[in-house]
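task queued by scheduler; priority normal; single chain, no ligands, no partner chains; default sampling; output format set to structure tokens
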Amino acid sequence: MSDQSKRLTFLFGKYAAGDASAEELQEFWQLLATHGEDEGLSAEMQSWWGKEESKMGDRGEKILHRVLAAPRNPRRYYPLRAAAAAVLLIGCACFYYLHRHQAAPMPMAKVARAAYKNDVMPGVTGATLTLADGTVVPLDSAGAGLSLMQGSTQVAAVNGTVEYKGNATSAALLYNTLTTRRGQQYPVKLSDGTLAILDAGSSITYPAGFPADRREVTVTGQVWFDIATDASRPFIVKHNNRRIEVLGTSFNIKAYEEEPGLEVTLVSGSVRVTNGTASQVLRPGQQAVLSNNSTGITLAAADVATATAWKDGNFEYKSRSLTYVMQDVARWYDIEIVYEGAQPTDTFTGGFSRSVTLTELLTILEMSRVHFKLEGRKLTVLSR
């Protein structure tokens, strides 16, 4: 093993254990970008993990086993090949490290590869609020200065969250729409106390004050809900001809038009999902998939932590296609993604903080032998 690979192995140990300084972290990313495919390095990392895994407790063991157990494309599974082992171990260590240090942002990575002409910063807290009269109000992480009335409902921004207080007092409802563009995320607390968090490229339309007999909203994109309990007024979420009806619960809905179907993941409580004439009741820990091309509903066990990781500031995937991962990356970093040749059929398992820069994220993904070229806000996935 070369001296640089030995150094990278040493830094890997400090990185995964959470003991690396800012300078060592930066050096780790730099060396990883140029020496991450060394076969000796792979063996050393596996040896290191075998010694250190027990020190990390149950969480480290569960993460490692979950990553290693994930199925992969047989055409790309080479037993103990350096790239496969490295991406699994580094991805697992990255996930473990980031969850231990969520309060501390990752250091900026220098652009090391010639294929990366620049870097792209991650998304931010921000949105636009469209009022009932068509007025558009920009919102940022502070939200300072927002204080207005919509009918009898007070609207204000408190610590980066739009909050509504008051119910409708007339038959004429005043509808507001909160919209995040690509590269933005924003929370809103509705007049009944329900909390909704919008991911990048999403929207929610709702009455400023709910009437006495119903609570209905319409969404696009990805939204996480924590519904305020009100047995007399079921909460209904609409998307095209789909309906999710709840009394008091928390769940995630992912309904981007560019994806093949709508996903509803139930965290707690109970929801009824309707797609055309089909209807299903979900239990906690289940996910319903509603195809865009039919009225059917498919139920399956859900990995709730994976489905809702985005609202806590992380990307997390379990056996997801690389193209699926790249769609999320495109929305959060507000970039265009093109494929040189056929789209890859690989699957990916792992986790990243949504605070890392784009080149930091790509450095990890490239360990799976998928390579990229970044120019401005255009990311090309290169053919092999």
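post-processing summary
- The chain has two domains: 3-120+307-381, 124-306.
- The chain has eight helices and 23 strands.
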